[in-house]
Amino acid sequence: MIELPSIALSVRQPWAWAIVAGFKKIENRSAGSVAAGAMDCRRIAIHAATGLKQDEFQWGHWRLHRHGVRCPHPTELPRGAIIGAVDVVDIVSESDSEWFGGQCGLVLENAAACEPIPCVGALGYFEWREAGALAPLAPWMKRYDLPSGDADTLSLFPDLAPGFESDPARPGRSKAPARKKN
Question: Is residue 39 part of a domain?
C-alpha cells in the first residue's frame, strides 16, 4: 500500500480516477476555491466525491476519450473514498496543457492509486480520516451503456468510443435563457 498524506482534496468521478491513474495532469479550480481551500504545493490524497450524475459521467467519459483515455464503467468508479495520492507541484493561471480549463490549475505529478478507503469529503484541502462506507451505486450506473438498459445484458462492444447523437454538454455550464424585461 502507498503512504497516504493526511491532507486530501475531493474530486468528482471520473476525474478522481483519471488523476490517480496518472492521466489527468491538472486539476482545475477557481481562484477563490484555491485561496479559500488553502491549496498549496504538497503531496495530497485524492478523495473521490460521493456525488456523480449521469450527465457528469457522460461528459467526463467523452472528454477523457478525446484525450485517448479509456474511462471505466461507472460501476467501477468508487465514490466516497480516498483512492490515491498525487504531488501538487505548481499552481498556475495559464497553461498549454490539454487538461487546463479553469482560472487556476493544480499541476499534478507522481500519481499513485490505492484500494478505496471510505471517507467523508469536504471542500478545499481537508484533513481526512477513515469513516463511513463507499457510496452506493445509483440505478443509472447499473444500466449505463447496456444495449437493453439492464444489468442482465452484457455490453456488445466494450472497446468502442462513446457515441452520442451530439457531443454532450459540460454539466453546470449551460447558460440560462435571458429573462425578458417588462
Answer: yes
Residue 68 lies in a domain: yes
**CB atoms closer than 10 angstroms to residue 62:** 17
- Number of structural domains, the chain? 1
How many whole angstroms separate alpha carbon 61 and alpha carbon 15?
9
- Its pTM stands at 0.83
Q: How many residues does the chain have?
A: 182
What domain range is 129 assigned to?
A: 7-143
Quick: pLDDT tens for 43-93. 999 999 999 999 999 999 999 998 899 999 999 999 999 999 999 999 999
Q: The domain that contains 98 carries what CATH number?
A: 2.30.130.30
Q: Kindly list the strands in the beta sheet with 104-118, ordered across the sheet, starting from the edge strand earlier in the chain.
A: 26-29, 104-118, 81-92, 43-48, 7-11, 125-127
